[in-house]
Every structure is written in C-alpha cells, then in structure tokens.
Design a protein that fits this description.
- The complex is a heterotrimer of chains A (261), B (700) and C (320).
- Chain A contains six helices and 15 strands.
- Chain A has helices spanning 35-51, 64-76, 94-107, 127-135, 189-197, 243-256, and strands at residues 2-7, 9-11, 19-20, 23-24, 31-33, 54-60, 80-84, 112-116, 139-150, 153-159, 163-170, 173-177, 200-203, 222-229, 237-240.
- The radius of gyration of chain A is 22 Å and the shape is globular.
- Chain A starts with a strand and ends in a 5-residue tail after the last helix.
- Chain B has 700 residues and is mainly alpha-helical.
- Chain B has four domains: 61-235; 271-414, Fumarate Reductase Iron-sulfur Protein, Chain B, domain 2; 429-572, Rossmann fold, CATH 3.40.50; 586-698, Rossmann fold, CATH 3.40.50.
- Chain B contains 31 helices and nine strands.
- Chain B has helices at 3-30, 40-52, 55-58, 64-92, 106-136, 145-173, 192-195, 197-205, 211-235, 243-252, 271-276, 289-297, 303-307, 309-312, 319-332, 334-350, 354-363, 377-382, 388-392, 400-414, 422-431, 467-472, 474-489, 506-510, 514-530, 541-550, 563-572, 602-611, 646-656, 667-679, 691-698, and strands spanning 185-186, 190-191, 462-465, 494-495, 535-538, 559-562, 586-588, 661-664, 687-690.
- In chain B, the strands form three sheets. Chain B has a four-stranded parallel beta sheet. In chain B, strands 7-8-9 form a three-stranded parallel beta sheet, sandwiched between helices.
- In chain B, strand 5, helix 26 (541-550) and strand 6 form a beta-alpha-beta unit.
- In chain B, helix 1 (3-30) packs parallel to helix 9 (211-235), helix 1 (3-30) packs across helix 12 and helix 16 (334-350) runs antiparallel to helix 17.
- Chain C has 320 residues and is α/β, with parallel strands linked by helices.
- In chain C, helix 2 links the parallel strand 4 and strand 5 (56-61).
- The chains are: A alpha/beta (261), B mainly alpha (700), C alpha/beta (320).
- Chains in contact: A-B, A-C.
- Chains A and C meet through helix 3, helix 4, strand 9, strand 11 and strand 14 of A and helix 4, strand 7, strand 9, strand 10 and strand 13 of C.
Chain lengths: 261, 700, 320
C-alpha cells in the first residue's frame, strides 16, 4: 500500500499572537508541524510498521520551517518526502492547495491519502475533503481508527454527530484524522540523525507538471482582508467564604443581575 | 608442623586463588575504561577514613550497633593477619617466630594479649551476627547460605585457634611432650598463657582429655584453622564477601568529583557508537571497570534499600536486587566479556576481517536484555536520583550513574522510555519548558517589578537564573517575586535573561535524553557566554546543579550560588534586616539536589532561624539523610502508579512533627509537599513556604 | 434579494435550535430563506422548519439517508441549492456538516468558509468574520466567488425577538445514489435521552475536581435540576470517567449557552476555547488561583462537595 501524507507548517499556537496594522506580527513567532498532521504522520508510520505500507510526506511551502517539518516526518519514520516550493503559492486558499495536492497525487501512484482533519492556524478543515472531490475518490473525515482489511479495503471508525460510525472504505481514498486517533511519537535521536541525510524531492509547479493558472492560483475564492485580536473575556467577581452564604449570593445575582436563571 | 603438607596446601590454595583473581582482573580489564588514577593523596585519605575507619558504619547514628559489630569483625581480622602469618610459619617450621613479635619482644607478648582479646570479641560478634540474621531477622538483610557460611567459617577460625592454643597450653604442662611444644616463656614477661586469658580458659575447658586426645586436637585444630582460612580465601571472590578484598580499592577509586565523576559526554554523531550500541548502558559489557568493582563490592547490607524512597513506597526499585542482578549477569558473561576484549584487541594488531570480526563479537553479547530481562523497566524508571543510597553505602558504591546510563541506553538506542514523558519533552523541545507554555511568556512573572534584563544591561554583577518553575508555575512564581524583592532591597546588581532563558535540561538528562539535554545546554551556554556571565544566583537546586556540574562539559563555567547561600550572605553583611518574629513550630525539608548533590545544609537553616523565634525542629530523616519529595529524576512529570506515593510519605513525616510551617528551598519540593498537605487536608494547619518567601515576608 | 439555503440540523428526530438561529440571521440580512432537511421519516419535522423561518422546505426523505454519509448528503444539498438558486448555503457547525460543506463548495465551484461568526454583504461582495489560530485572532475575509458555502460557529447567530415564521412550500428531492466507496456498516450511537450540548441553553460541566463517579453523579444532579446539557473537560475523558462526546473544548464541542456552569474545572486553555462564547459563566473551584476564574463572570471558591448541594437547594427553591 502506498500512502501520501500531507502536512502543514503552522505557527506555534502556544505563543502570544500580536496583531499590528491589521496583520499578524511575525517577529518572535516559531513554526511547527500542525498537531493534527502529526497524528496523520503517526497513523501513516503505524500502517508502515504493521502493514508494510510505503509512506510519502508532502508539504507545500519552500522555507526552512517547511523543510524542518518534512525532516521531522522522516524522523518519525516516513520513507519519502516531497516539498512543493513555488513562491506563487503564498496565500493560496484551500481550493488551490487541493489542486496542487491533486497534481502530487497524480504524479505518483497512491492508494491512500491521510491528512489531519484541520490546521491549527486556519481551523478550516477543507483541503482534504476538497482533494477527495477533485480526485473523485471516497473520503471519511474525523477518523479515530484505521484498520486494514486488505489491499483494497479499509475499515475506519469515524466520530460523527450520532455516535461512532464503522465505515468500510474502498481504496483509493482520503482519510482525515482526529487527534484522538493516536499519540504521535517524539522523533528520537536515531531518527533525527537519519532524517538529516535523507533526500527531499523539491519541486515547483512546473516540475510538478502544472502551472499557476491550472491550479486556479489566480482565482482565490476568498482572501483575508485583515486580522484583529480576539476580545479576551474579562474576569468577573470571585466569592470566598462560607459556602452557604456565598452560594446564595451568587444565585441571587444570576437571577437578578445576569438574568439567566 | 609439616612443611610438605603446608607447602602443598599453600600451593593449591594460592593457585586457585590466583586463578580466581586473575579471571576477575581480566574481566575488569575487559570492561570499559575509567580514569581514577588522579589525586592519590585524597584517595588514600578517603580509603583510611571510610574503609579502614568504617566511618559510614559507626559514624552513622542509624544502624550503629550492627555497624560496630562489623567494625570489630573487620578490625579484628586485620589484627589477626599477623597471627595467621605466625601460624603459617609454624606450619613450615616448628617454633617459627615473626621478627619483632617473637619471644624476646614485648611486642610479641602484647600481641598475644591483643590477639586473645580480639578473637574473643570477634567470636562474640559473629555469634551475635548469626543470632541477628536468624532470629531478629532485620528487614534490610538478605539471608543466604553464603552469609551464614562465612560467619560460621569465621567462627571456626576463632574457635580453632583458641582450642589450638588451649591444647598447646595443656600439652606443654605434660612432662614428656613439653619439649615438643613451643610456647613463649620469656623470663621477663612470663609464660604465654598469662597473657592469654581466653586461650587459657579454652585450655581449662579441654584439660580433662588425655594426652593423646590433646595431641590429636592440637594437630586437628591447627590444620582446621589453616584449611578453613584457605577455603575462606578462595570463596571470597564468589559472592558478597569479595568485598573483603575489594572494599579498600573500591573506596580508593571512588568518585572524587561531587557528587559523581563527570559522566562522559555522549557524542551522538558518532556512527560507531550507534553501531556498537554504546550510547548509554545497553549491554553488560559496557560497564566500566569501576562500576564492575562496585558490583563486586556490594556487601548486601541493604542500607540502600532502607533509605530509598521508592523502596519505602513499595515500588519495584530494590537496589539490592538491582545490584545483585547486574552482578549475576556480569558473572554469567564473564568468559564472553573477556573473549570479546581479546578479539577486539587482537583484531587491531592482526588486521582481522571486519565483518567476521563483527559477527563473532556480536555473538558474544549476552542473551539477556539488560533492561527487560536483567533489570525490569519499572525498576529503572522508578528512581528519583535522590542519592540517599549512595550517601549511606558503607563501601561507596555509585548507583545513580548506572541508572542514568541505562536510561540513556533506553532512550537513545532502544527508544523505549515512559511515553508519559512525551508532553514534557515536547514542551522542552518547542518552548524550552516542560509545560510547553509559549516561550514568549517566560518573563511575564516579572512584569511591573522593574527587573533588569541582561540584554538591556549586560554589566550587572549577578545573573538571576529563574528556571522553568519560577517562570511558569503559578505557585513557584511567588518564589521568584520574593527573591527579586529581597535582591532589590539589598541593592544587588542583578539581571535576568527573560525569554532568552531556556530550561537547563536537568530532567532531560536524568531521564537519559542526552539529545535534548545537549541541545538546550548548548543554546544556554551560547547565550550565557555571549553575555559574559560569571556569577549566577538560582533558587532551584535542579537548575543550580545542572549549571554547576553538567554545563562545564559543554563549555559553560560559572560560579553558582543558591539563593539561600546568597541571602545568608546578605544578612551577614547587614544588607537586609529581618524581624525575627515568625511563631510556631517550624521545620526544614532538605532538597536532595541541594543537600546530597551540592552539600548545602547549613545556609537555609541559618536563614530560616533568622526569621523564626522558635528553634527549628528537625525531622528524623533530615540533612544528609533527608527523604526525597519524589519529584527528582524526571518523576515530576510522571504519575506514581505503583505502590504508595512518595510525597505523601514525606508529608506524613512532616505532619507527625506537628509543624505549623515547613520551609523548603526548591520549587519541586514546594509543589510536592503542598500537594501532599492538600491531599491530607491539613492546609489549615501547616503552611509550606520557600525560604525566599519567608525572608521577604519578615524583611524590614 | 439574496437567497440563503439553510441545512436543517436534525438530531434524534428533532430540528435543533441552531436551524432557527441561522434562518433568523438570513432574514436579518434581508435574504429569502429556504431550508433543506435530509434523512429518514422527516414528515413530522416540516412544521418546525416553517416556524423556524424558512419560506421553502426541500425534503430529501429516504431510508437510504437514515445513516449519515457525506457524499449522498452533499448531493442532496447541491440539488436543493440548484433548485432554489441559492446564493449562500449555511450549515450549523457539527462534525457531519463539516464533512459535507467543502464537498458542496467543490462541486458548485464556490468558496467555503468554516467556523464563521458573522456574514454580511459589503457592496457586491460577501464578507465573513471567523476566528483563527486557536481563537486568538479574528479574520475578516472577502469572498471572491459569487456564492458562498458557510459553516456557522455554534452560538454565533442569535435569535432576535422579531423572528418571523416562514411559509410552507415543500419540494421533495429525489433520493441520491449511495456512496459505494464509503459504506457505513454500523453506528454505535451515543447514549440516548441526553440533552445535546450544542442545543442546551444551560450547560453544566464537571472536571477533575471530582475524583470519582459519586462526584460526577452529584454534578449531573445539578445539570438535571436545571434541564441543562452535561459536559466535561478533556482530563475526565482521558481518564475514562466521561465519554468523548461530552468533551467541551478545542478538540471537543464548542458551546455557547446562555449560562455555563463549570464545576471542578481548572480552566486549561483548550477547555476555555470551547466555552468562552457563553453568555454568562459561573465557576466553582476550591483553588482561588484556578485560571477558570479569569474568564468567569461569577466565581465561587469552595469545596464543590459543599457548594453543589447548596446550589441545587437554592435553584430548586427558585423553581418553585
């Protein structure tokens, strides 16, 4: 089985994000692999270890942070790495990215695409599903377990609105994974050392056999106009003391002041 | 007696003994090297005080009676060595006398008296020892056949010598045999038996026997004594009594570096090390000779078990078994290890084919997994690295570096370690702190306090190393704030690194993650050296210890001062004044990494006393024998899922003291003890405070 | 006049409140509204769709749609949208709608925006507002395509006092082909008879402050007294004491009820990001330093085992 895993570089969400002049302040920010994509990489590596699958990682973006996350994927156990480096793609929306990924998919021969269900910076959660539509292959999202039945069939567990769904998925297919699916391993020293030496296949759109127009690059369906900081919620009042007294006090406030009871 | 028999026996005994010793020495030579040939004078002094002087046995209040018992047996042995020489001489030549200890010499007679006294004492001690083992059955002792055997052999040695003399004294009285029997009878000092009351009593005991029986007894007791000694000598290398031979060298070669010899810095870029799996301790043949000597020297006394916090809370780390299992594995693989060393050194000279060589060498590896088969995983990771075991070991065995070495092997080569450490390790990697909180928030605790950033003023005299807890943990931040207050009041010139500070990597190193440790250390050293930092004040003993002892390996050499030392100094210099008005029973909990790792016990107490009206009430397990809070060795980031909780054990001890304040000087101890008090629902009766908090509170 | 198609959010045979909220918002921007309901045995739901505020109701009612499958559901939505001539297609935020919306947008060749908190026409363009980077920033986004598929964040659109009912105008859609590539073999349903977190006006959540089932039962009692949804924190789910579908937080459910009561929850960032949209927050915790107090409007510092029974007592006496 050949697996294509897509990973994205995102800002470390633990950091304080500052906004100035309607844009995000880049200074002091550091970038890491999207947490849900870490789950995707872990799921792929587990399929490699348990079922002998061949794994390939693809990331769109040419800078060093992107290179580092591909190397991190190697260190976790991924076999091959593809980096799409084309400056024209900066600011591409999910539809454009999905087209690019489609080209990557079609250039190789894959049976399964695994991606995290959303990215920590945009929280869009669209790219994987759109890719499946483009490729006209089935897609199951929010997956918490993947079992291989044979070369052509997977059994996946999805967390849906009504409960857990057990789905039989015909390959080739796209799966987007939830963070409940696994605990991503920390890359170990050995893996990191080997990762340093592994070759990454770097391609621009031309090398991929396509063009900016073909992937719809000039036609972003949405564009971000501005950023602003979220309103932080202010702390209210804390009540300490005799439990009966303060509880009565607060209940009174909920009824009369907040009017929610 | 009979020179031929004597020579024969001696030949056999010494040959066997030499063979045993040579094998052991070959084994030691075949193991990894360790440089312990420095500072010979200090080493000699250690040996005299600790080994010869039995300091940890008789100097320690706990277990003193059994310590005295052993000391007497040991010293008795040493004294009786001279007697042995006399007897061997007698075996070759009748009437043999040692120079200076002969009939003409007062020393000879004095020695007779001493020998008699000592044999009596040793016999009593041995009987007591057997009684202790068999009847009293102290928990820390492991009763084995060999333990009893050796005690019995020593008993036989004493009894046989006393009866030999007894027979001799009786026979010398008999007219027709007196010329055959040799005793001292110097007119100046009198007959021998005047100086040997115990032997005389033995003589009285057997005086009823016939001359024939007595003659037989004489010969039998003599050869019994000689043979017992030879048997004794030859069983020594096999079992815990090897310590009789190895204890003195083991103490001589012990670590001089405090607390341990600096572990060699692992070079993770070294391809060969990966191939040989020699990063950390993965195979028994990777022990260095001193570590093997440690294992040989373990006397199975069990004192380490008694003070170990994990053992006290029913976890599977039983140091006794730990050492014994390793020793067994070492012995099982003795031949293979020696063969391995031969192959490798031979190959260098003959230019052997590398692939077949590798295969042959690989085939000599032990069949057992070091961690897994020999030592259980739970055992390895239960250790809090508190060093209580090393502090009480009478023969100065170093347990902790072996544990760290095995953890290194597990993390780097086997890639097997408690996965619950992952969030903390990931936090270190990404944001330089185990909580994974954004690095950009590291100095938020200092907002509004007017603290200088060293980037703004690199000329400050001291760098205040805040540490991860002091920067991010809500409770520990109060320590940082208090300390800043104190330093500012005293007009100290200091600065902090702010967001440039990263975790020192202490816990990464203690869990064997050298990769992460070296990465953090290198970054910190670069930052510190970039600012030309010379003096660092730290409130956290783990930070202090790592910066002081581990960073020099990576180019970081700084003078480290614990905040309690610094505050004590400030008080002495009158730079801060304290209102000694704190009421209530107060006690102090010694942090392992401040006390046993850095020998700082007095200063926190002196500072504490300066604010407390009442005298500090000490816990039973305090000072050098303080009981760990349970957070060291990376255990802060792991759950205690086996046995009872270490921090509750310590909390109970604090509560039993009925203290109203417990003072600490480490943010980990603060957290663990406060959690313990919360869990035992005594928050209203006991408050936990860092030294800095108390000083800030009582500062005028 | 723009045309907005709202996909009805149906759970256990009921149309959830969010549907009416979305329809109300559509009206408030001056749009003509339609609702599409997809499932099985939907006849009884039509009145709620009408009273919720839709002027047309597209019904895809078929046994084959009993179990959710993204492909067929997307086909129904596309069908309804084409028939209606929708300019905007709105979903309430659920796992299922997040699986369907991008498919619909891809098939229609239009933009897709998820987790939106506001939408408006600025001139000819649609503009939406949505949070990003773990709710730390807000994006204002211009939609370049003429039409938009949007997934609306829970609680983002509130009911107004003047929501008008719609009119009945039912159009039946034909059953879509099944997705042979992804076949749902089994549904292990969540426990029934529970108030849905996304729907509830009051949510009571329990955290690690309770140590065991007894504590959980105590807090559940409070939730029952209030007729509230019962939620929890990640720590409780991880320890196995509570089910994942009750988890409120970044990786669980985002809720925005009228009143959110957290009991024994310290307030880790991922939990906070799931409930700071609530109108009023009451927190009960015995640690005065707990971060939850930084976002709570009212905080009671005390032992929950003391406070919760008193709270229940007080509430019961008010209800009389």
């Amino acid at each position: 089985m050949k697996i294509l895993t897509t990973v994205k570089k995102v800002v470390d969400v633990e950091l304080t994000i500052r906004v100035e002049s309607a844009a995000i302040v880049e200074e002091g920010l550091q970038y890491v692999m999207n947490a849900w994509d870490e789950n995707a990489v872990e799921a792929s590596v587990q399929l490699k270890e348990n079922n002998g699958a061949e794994t390939t990682l693809v990331s769109i973006g040419g800078d060093d942070d992107n290179t580092q996350i591909i190397r991190r994927g190697f260190a976790m156990g991924i076999d091959n790495g593809i980096q799409i480096d084309d400056p024209l793609l900066a600011g591409a929306d999910s539809f454009v990215l999905a087209r690019v990924l489609q080209k990557v998919y079609e250039k190789g021969s894959y049976d399964l695409v695994i991606t995290g269900k959303q990215a920590q910076d945009t929280d869009n959660g669209q790219t994987g599903i759109i890719l499946a539509e483009n490729l006209e292959i089935p897609c199951v999202s929010n997956v918490v377990a993947i079992d291989v039945i044979d070369d052509e069939l997977l059994k996946v567990t999805r967390l849906g609105d009504g409960g857990k769904e057990i789905v039989e998925l015909k390959l080739p297919a796209v799966v987007t994974v939830s963070d409940s699916i696994n605990e991503p391993r920390l890359p170990q020293m050995r893996g990191l050392m080997m990762a340093k030496k592994k070759k990454i296949e770097v391609m621009d759109l031309a090398a991929l056999g396509t063009s900016f127009e073909e992937v719809g690059g000039s036609d972003n369906r949405s564009e971000i106009l501005e950023f602003s900081r979220s309103q932080a919620r202010e702390a209210g009042k804390k009540y300490e003391g005799d439990a009966a007294e303060i509880t009565a006090q607060v209940v009174g406030l909920l009824v009369n002041e907040a009017k929610v009871l | 007696m009979n020179p031929l028999v004597m020579a024969f026996l001696l030949f056999i005994a010494l040959s066997v003994f030499c063979y045993s010793m040579v094998r052991k020495i070959q084994l030691l030579q075949a193991l990894a090297p360790a440089n312990r040939a420095d500072h010979l004078k200090t080493r000699f002094k250690n040996m005299i005080i600790l080994a010869v002087g039995q300091q940890r046995l008789i100097g320690r209040a706990k277990e003193r009676s059994s310590g005295i018992m052993h000391a007497f047996i040991f010293w008795g042995f040493c004294i009786l060595l001279i007697r042995s020489l006399m007897l061997y001489g007698e075996g070759f030549q009748k009437g043999f006398e040692l120079p200076f200890f002969g009939e003409p010499d007062l020393l000879g007679y004095l020695y007779i008296a001493l020998k008699d006294l000592v044999e009596g004492i040793v016999l009593v001690m041995v009987i007591w020892a057997i009684y202790r083992r068999a009847v009293v059955k102290p928990e820390r002792l492991h009763n084995s056949f060999k333990a009893y055997l050796v005690l019995v052999l020593i008993g036989i040695l004493m009894v046989s010598d006393l009866l030999y003399d007894g027979a001799r004294f009786n026979l010398v009285q008999l007219p027709n045999l007196s010329s055959d029997i040799h005793i001292f009878n110097n007119p100046q000092y009198g007959p021998e038996f005047l100086w040997a009351p115990l032997s005389k009593a033995a003589a009285a005991l057997i005086s009823g026997f016939s001359a024939g029986t007595l003659s037989l007894l004489l010969v039998v007791m003599f050869w019994l004594h000689i043979c017992t000694q030879m048997v004794f000598l030859n069983i020594l290398p096999y079992g815990k009594h090897f310590h009789v031979i190895t204890a003195l060298p083991n103490v001589f070669f012990k670590s001089l570096g405090y607390p341990h010899e600096k572990a060699k810095l692992l070079d993770m870029e070294d391809e060969d090390a990966w191939e040989n799996e020699s990063l950390g301790l993965n195979h028994i043949h990777q022990l260095d000779w001193k570590q093997a000597l440690d294992l040989f020297t373990c006397t199975e006394c069990g004192r380490c078990k008694q003070v170990c916090p994990t053992y006290a809370t029913d976890k599977p780390l039983n140091l006794y078994d730990f050492n014994l299992n390793l020793r067994q594995e070492l012995t099982d693989n003795e031949a293979a290890i020696i063969q391995r060393a031969k192959l490798l050194s031979g190959a260098e000279q003959s230019g052997h084919d590398t692939d077949t060589l590798k295969e042959e060498v690989l085939a000599l590896n032990s069949e057992k997994q070091l961690v897994g088969d020999v030592i259980a995983e739970d055992t390895l990771w239960a250790c809090t690295t508190c060093r209580a075991c090393e502090e009480v070991c009478p023969v100065t065995i170093e347990h902790v570096p072996r544990i760290i070495g095995m953890r290194q092997g597990q993390t780097l080569i086997a890639q097997s370690y408690p996965k619950e450490l992952n969030p903390a390790l990931k936090g270190l990697e990404r944001n330089g702190n185990p909580w994974g909180i954004g690095y950009d928030k590291r100095d938020e605790w200092a907002k509004g306090l007017g603290v200088t950033k060293i980037a703004d003023n690199p000329d400050v005299e001291y760098l205040l190393w805040v540490g991860c807890a002091g920067s991010f943990d809500d409770r520990a931040k109060k320590i940082s704030v208090s300390l800043v207050k104190i330093l500012q009041k005293a007009g100290v010139s200091f600065g902090i690194l702010g967001v440039e500070e990263k975790c020192t990597g202490d816990f990464a190193r203690r869990v064997g993650n050298e990769m992460l440790f070296q990465m953090l250390a290198q970054e910190n050293v670069e930052t510190l050296n970039g600012y030309n930092v010379k003096k660092i004040i730290a409130a956290c003993p783990h930070c202090l210890n790592t910066l002081k002892h581990d960073y020099p390996q990576l180019g970081g050499n700084y003078q480290l001062i614990h905040h309690s030392e610094f505050i004590e100094q400030l008080i002495k210099e009158g730079k801060i004044k304290l209102n000694q008005s704190m009421k209530g029973t107060v006690t102090y909990h010694d942090p392992c990494y401040l006390g046993r790792y850095n020998d700082i016990y007095r200063q926190p107490r002196s500072v504490l006393q300066a604010v407390s009206i009442d005298e500090i009430k000490e816990m039973d397990r305090s000072g050098k024998e303080s009981f760990c809070c349970g957070a060291g060795g990376g255990r802060m980031w792991m759950e205690e899922s086996i046995g009872t909780k270490i921090y509750l054990e310590r909390t109970r001890e604090i509560l039993d003291l009925q203290a109203t304040t417990v003072a600490v000087s480490c943010p980990f101890c603060l957290t663990m003890i406060e959690d313990g008090i919360k869990e035992m629902e005594k928050v209203d009766t006991v408050r936990t405070r860092d030294i800095a908090e108390l000083v800030a509170q009582y500062m005028v | 006049m723009a045309k907005v198609l709202v996909i009805a959010d149906i759970k256990r045979g009921e149309v959830k409140r969010s549907t009416a909220e979305l329809l109300a918002k559509a009206r408030s921007i001056g749009a003509e509204t339609a609702a599409v309901a997809i499932g099985n045995n939907l006849e009884a739901l039509i009145p709620s769709l009408v009273s919720g505020g839709s002027d047309s109701q597209y019904i895809a009612d078929d046994p084959g749609l009993e179990l959710f499958s993204a492909g067929p559901y997307a086909t129904c939505v596309v069908d309804a949208a084409s028939q209606f001539g929708a300019d905007q297609i709105w979903f309430a935020s659920t796992e299922n709608s997040k699986a369907v919306a991008p498919k619909v947008a891809a098939r229609l060749g239009v933009a897709c925006a998820t987790d939106i908190t506001d939408v408006a026409y600025t001139g000819d363009n649609i503009e939406i507002t949505r949070p990003a980077i773990a709710n730390k920033v807000i994006q204002r986004v211009k939609i370049n395509s003429e039409k938009l598929v949007a997934v609306v964040r829970a609680g983002a659109f509130k009911m107004t006092d003047e929501s008008t009912a719609g009119s009945e105008n039912v159009i039946r859609l034909s059953a879509p082909p099944t997705d042979l590539g992804a076949v749902v073999k089994e549904l292990i349903a969540d426990a029934s008879g529970e108030i849905d977190l996304g729907d509830a006006a009051i949510v009571v959540s329990v955290g690690r402050g309770v140590k065991d089932q007894k504590g959980i039962d105590l807090v559940k009692g409070l939730a029952d007294d209030l007729g509230a949804g019962f939620g929890t924190s990640r720590a409780m789910v991880d320890s196995g004491l509570m089910e994942h579908n009750k988890q409120v937080g970044q990786t669980g459910k985002i809720v925005a009820p009228k009143l959110y009561i957290s009991v024994g929850i310290s307030g880790a960032i991922q939990h906070l990001s799931g409930m700071t949209g609530s109108q009023v927050i009451l927190a009960v915790n015995n640690d005065p330093e707990a971060p939850i107090f930084n976002v709570a409007d009212y905080g009671i510092v005390g032992d929950l085992f003391e406070v919760v029974p008193i709270l229940r007592q007080q509430i019961k006496s008010i209800q009389r």
